[in-house]
Design brief:
Structural class: mainly alpha
Oligomer: single chain
Number of strands: 0
Strand content: under 5%
Largest sheet: none
Order of helices and strands: HHHHHHHHHHHH
Helix content: over 70%
Shape: flat
């Protein structure tokens, strides 16, 4: 009897934390559920569209081809996510969702229980503290702790791998920018310092070297971030071109049309790189900025990319 009582005591002690986590989880699920319901017309339209898989590849490839450099952080995160065990992360999310649904279903059934037969649900006749304790113990009986533990470990490992990849890219850009800034500072310090000393009052000479250094590092960081965006734009153009050509091949095969090249042939490779070159040139011409209506259509991705960039920067 001592073992179960200890488990029940630990569960009751953890009630405030679990309730807070549950509230956050319910809010997130509610938002995602609302977005999922609102996207129902789009999903139904895509479902009726012939060959939705090939069509989605074409649309995704076109978006990467034309706007990938604008969302450099999101593209890098997606590639890291794809390379760091997409299958295991997908299984983890499915397992977590299955256990969450089991807990929600059990909670709904528990809300309808009337063990004393007085016509009023039992959960409406107890205090909030007793209700919280009842729900926590119910969830502990319903969910599979081993499955949830493995799923959370896999999910955390995937997120950590993605964040580590983004931090490495961020650190590489910062280091490159600092190096460029130091080189610029050496040239400016040698040629500009004498002139600044002649026009700046002697009591402010101590600010000349730091001021020139800050300006040089700002220019260096700007150049580094520009080069990083160019590299990301080039990568997304190649990736998008491969998806676009692959989707076009699938659509053509579905309609009985054969392409003038075979899969993996030099001609196919040439076509992919030619399309990538066109897309990259268009991104450069636009300065990696979005034009209407892409500004409106891709607003959720812009918000996500900004939030992800800030998270990597602060971490």
């Amino acid at each position: 009897a001592e073992g179960p009582s200890r488990v029940e005591g630990a569960a009751k002690a953890a009630i405030p934390l679990l309730l807070a986590l549950g509230s956050v989880l319910d809010a997130v699920v509610a938002v995602l559920g609302s977005l999922w319901k609102r996207s129902a017309p789009v999903r139904r339209a895509l479902g009726r569209w012939p060959h939705p898989r090939e069509t989605s590849k074409c649309l995704g490839g076109l978006a990467l081809l034309l706007y990938g450099g604008t969302f450099s952080t999101t593209v890098a995160a997606f590639e890291a996510f794809r390379l760091c065990g997409y299958a295991s992360l997908k299984s983890a999310l499915v397992a977590l969702w299955r256990n969450y649904q089991a807990a929600v279903d059990a909670s709904k059934k528990d809300d309808e229980r009337d063990d004393d037969g007085d016509g009023v649900a039992d959960v409406k006749q107890i205090s909030k503290k007793e209700l919280a304790s009842r729900k926590v113990l119910l969830f502990m009986r319903v969910i599979n702790p081993e499955e949830v533990g493995v799923a959370l470990a896999a999910l955390w490992a995937g997120i950590s791998a993605v964040m580590a990849t983004l931090r490495i890219e961020f650190a590489r850009a910062v280091t490159f920018g600092a190096t460029i800034g130091d080189l610029i500072f050496q040239g400016l310090h040698m040629h500009i310092r004498p002139g600044l000393k002649r026009i700046v009052a002697p009591e402010y000479h101590k600010w000349i070297a730091p001021g020139v250094s800050w300006c040089a590092r700002f220019v260096g960081m700007s150049l580094a971030w520009t080069l990083q965006r160019v590299i990301s734009g080039l990568h997304s153009s190649v990736r998008g071109a491969a998806l676009l050509v692959g989707g076009a091949e699938g659509l053509a095969a579905a309609h009985g049309v054969s392409m003038p090249w075979e899969a993996g042939s030099p001609l196919q490779t040439f076509v992919v790189y030619a399309v990538a070159a066109v897309g990259f040139a268009l991104q450069l011409r636009a300065g990696f900025r979005l034009a209407f209506p892409a500004t409106f259509l891709l607003l959720p991705i812009r918000i996500f990319d900004f939030a992800l960039t800030q998270a990597v920067t602060m971490s």
